[in-house]
Amino acid sequence: MNRLAERIESRTPVHRDRAIDGLRALALLAVPTGHWLLGGFTLSSDGAIHNASPLGTFAGLAPVSWVLQMLGIFFLVGGYASVLSYRRRKGSAGEWLKARLARLGRPVLGVTAVWAALLPLLHFGLGVPVDSLRTASTLVIQPLWFVGVYTVVTALTPLCVRAARRLGVWAAAPLLGSVAVVDFLRYGPYADAVPSWLSLLNILPGWLFAYQLGVSWGEGRVTRRHAWALLLGGTALFAALLVWFGYPASMVGVPGGTRTNSHPPSLLVLALAAAQSGAAILLRNRLGALLRRPALWAPVVIVNLSAMTILCWHQTAMLTAAIPASYLGEVPGLVGAPDSVGWILARLAWMPVFAGLLVLIGRFARGFESPWTKTGTARRTVAGLLAAGFAVFALGLA
Length: 398
What we know:
The protein is mainly alpha-helical. Helices cover about 70% and strands about 0% of the residues. The chain is built from 16 helices and 2 strands. The protein is globular, with a radius of gyration of 22 Å.
C-alpha cells in the first residue's frame, strides 16, 4: 500500500487541486454510505423483498441525512471543475460538451444493460420473485436520476460561465428565489389549488444552484466573505425552515411521508447546499494541505477514478447480499423490518461487506468508464435497447 501511495504521489501533477478532488471523493462516498445505512428490506410471505427505511421508525436519525446529503458539494465541485476544463478546452464548446457527456453516459448504459440481461436469468433461471426484481431495479435506477440532472447542468456550463462573469456569486440568487417561489405555492395557503406537477419546476434550479456557485468559484468570483455569508445564511435558513415552516427533517424520503425534500429538491436542500458550499470554500486550503500526505491522497485518487462505478453499482453490491439472503428468511440488518436498534447495529456490521462486494464488482464494471473504442455500432445499439428495456421495467411501465 505504501508503494502504491508513493506511485500515485509521484504521478500527481504539481498543479493538481487536491482539495477539489478531496471534496468530490467525500461527496461520492456519502452516496453509498447513505443508501446502505438508511435503506433496508422487508420480506413478504412469498419471499420477495421490498424497500423499507429505518427513518420510518427512528425519526431521530434525520440529522444523519443532513451529513450524508452531500450532493450540494458534488454539484459545487462539478461546477468548479467544469470551468477549469472548459477554459482549457482545445476544440469547440460542442466538442468539449460531447466528451464530458460521453464520460457520464457510458457507465449508465453499462449498468442498465447488464441488469436488463440479468433480469430473465434471475427470474427464470434462479426463481427470484418478480417483486424482488422490481425492488432491485428501482434501487439500481434510483441514483441514476442524478446523472440525468448533472448532464443537463453540464450542458448549461457556457451560460453559467457568462452569468458568473457578469454577476459573480449573485448569479445563483435567482435560482434560490425560483425554488422559494415554487415551495411557497405548493406548501403555502393556496397549496390545494396548485397542480402536483408544479414541484417539478424545482428540479433544474434546485440542483443548478450549487453548480452555479461552483462556476462562480472557479471564475474567482467567490471570496471568503461570500463563503462566510453562504455558511451562516444557509445555516440560518435551514434552521428557520425546520423550526417555523414545517419542512420534513429528513433530507431523503421517508416511507409514508406526505412531503419529501429531495425529489424534487425543496428550499431546505438549497439551504443545506449553501451552508456546505460555504464550509467547503473556507476549508479548501486546509484540506489541500492535509491531502499532501501520500497515504491520504492515494484513496482520494482511487475514489475519483472510480466515481461513476461507485455511483452506478453501489446498490447492486447491497442487492448481491440481500437477494440470496432472502431465501434464508429474515437476516438481521439485511432482510427484515428496520425497526429496532439491533437492526441498526447489524446494518453497520454489513457495511464493510457491501463495500467489499462493490470493490469486486468494480473490477469488472470499471471498463464501462473507459472509451468504448473496440465496441461496434451494433453492440452499442443492443446495449441501448437493453438499457431502455430495463428503464421501462424499473419505472413500473411494464
